[in-house]
TrEMBL record:
The protein, known as: Transcriptional regulator, TetR family
Matches recorded under InterPro entries: Homeodomain-like_sf
């Protein structure tokens, strides 16, 4: 009887919305509540009755869409996770890298000069990547759920979350592998034996992803950790101020990659790399805009 009254009231107040729109409204609200709640599996924030009220939909329609509250929570959590995207470099980081390239323009003819550029460029990029992800509410949610979902008591929900996490991780692996392959072209590097071809770059991407996950977990629990630095001469490059996170990531990257002796560095090759970087930068800016637009639509 209450469901009949609920639908009648909805019709009196305004146009009755479709079941699909009901679901979308509720999932959008629940996802936002999860993102705002922070990096925990705080399922209490997505109580169905609370979301029904916030979404301004009828209870009858909501319970037709999800007869089980557990199913609603599962869909809400999976939807929130699905909003996580890789965060490409922003304009500030791209300009910083371009300045670094130009500052090394007189040193590309020596192995030492090229190595100094590569190590510094990777160090700058890694630090920027980590800080972007830690500043993103969607990424903080992703990291928190990845660490805590094994403790979920609902086995069905746990399985759904595990499947979505695996799907997202694989999409990240694929994209990172492509980026690493492109970067090798820019800097004149190749994979160390026994790694070769796309499978080798994918293996590097997997290892880098695992390392980054550990770094993000540490960064969430200890925000000041990234700013703790020590001056060291590492990876055959001049001394610089290093964080532990940068050391960890570059150990993985430069343990897998090495200078390609087949690449002849001269003015033409330098100009080619600079032109390629300009095109790659445009792609990153486009990706960054799409990522921001995607997250904006979810708010």
């Amino acid at each position: 009887m209450s469901h009949i009254y609920d639908d009648t009231l909805c019709l009196m107040v305004g146009k009755r919305i479709s079941e699909q729109e009901t679901k979308q409204r509720m999932l959008d609200i629940a996802s936002e509540l999860l993102v705002v709640s922070g990096p925990t599996v705080g399922l209490d924030v997505i109580r169905m009755e609370k979301v029904i009220t916030a979404a301004e939909v009828s209870r009858a329609s909501a319970y037709r869409a999800w007869p089980s509250k557990a199913d609603f929570r599962s869909d809400a959590l999976v939807t929130a996770l699905g909003q996580v995207t890789m965060l490409p470099e922003g304009l500030a980081e791209i300009k910083q890298l371009k300045t670094l390239i130009e500052s090394h323009s007189n040193h590309w003819d020596t192995a030492e000069g090229r190595r100094s550029f590569v190590v510094n460029a990777l160090r700058i990029s890694v630090d920027a990547d980590i800080r972007r992800m830690l500043a993103s509410p969607h990424w903080r949610l992703f990291v928190g759920i990845s660490a805590n979902f094994p403790g979920l008591e609902d086995e069905h929900l746990k399985a759904d979350v595990a499947a979505e996490l695996a799907r997202i991780q694989q999409s990240f692996v694929t994209r990172r592998a492509r980026i690493y392959q492109q970067v090798c072209t820019l800097i004149g590097y190749r994979q160390r034996a026994p790694w070769v071809g796309p499978a080798g770059f994918r293996a590097l991407s997997e290892l880098a992803g695992l390392t980054m996950n550990g770094i993000l977990n540490r960064g969430l629990s200890d925000p000041g950790w990234l700013d703790q630095r020590i001056e060291l001469a590492l990876f055959d490059a001049p001394a610089a101020l290093w964080s532990q996170a940068e050391i960890a990531m570059l150990t993985v990257l430069l343990g897998h990659l090495e200078p390609d002796p087949a690449v002849e560095w001269n003015e033409a090759r330098y100009a080619e790399s600079l032109a390629w970087f300009e095109e790659f930068s445009k792609e990153l800016v486009r990706d960054s805009g799409e990522a921001q637009s995607h997250h904006g639509m979810m708010r």
